[in-house]
Amino acid sequence: MTASFDEAAVHRFLFKEARLQDEHRYEEWEALWAEEAHYWVPLGEEGEPESRISIINDNRARIAGRVRQLMTGRRHAQSPASRMRRVIGNIEVGSFDGDTVRVESNFLLIEHRRDTTRQWAGRTLHVLRPVDSDFRMLVKKVSLVDVEAPIPTLAFLI
């Protein structure tokens, strides 16, 4: 793959992931993950996942469990499900070593549920592995802008 093809393919992947999350297409979103996945939303910026408190710190099995819970339709915090739209921007495709590509981007997520609208903003690090003509996520780290503020129930996929 050439560098320009890599970057366009990465952008398409990020936009697809955001669309699947926004449309509550959980099984399709889960299929984007590699087996050795790590989904991390730290509570702050410093430190490693093993040594700090996290909002989310999931391996592949926990991601699958999270998806199963969301699909039951019986999660009180998501009944009815939030309506969401994400804007992904400032995408920076890092080095591509033939095995993985590191990508950082900013996001703004608008969530509306039960007459309340919230904004979630942050920066996301993805480490992606090319698979055929697509990618699988090895790492997704979401750093929220207002992580020190009280966080309402995070009962959806950020």
UniProtKB/TrEMBL annotation:
One of its GO terms (biological process) is 3-phenylpropionate catabolic process. The keyword Ion transport does not apply. One of its GO terms (molecular function) is oxidoreductase activity. Coiled coil: none annotated. Pfam families: Ring_hydroxyl_B. Gene3D superfamilies: 3.10.450.50. Keywords: Oxidoreductase. InterPro entries: NTF2-like_dom_sf, Rng_hydr_dOase-bsu. Belongs to the bacterial ring-hydroxylating dioxygenase beta subunit family. This is Nuclear transport factor 2 family protein. It comes from Ramlibacter albus.
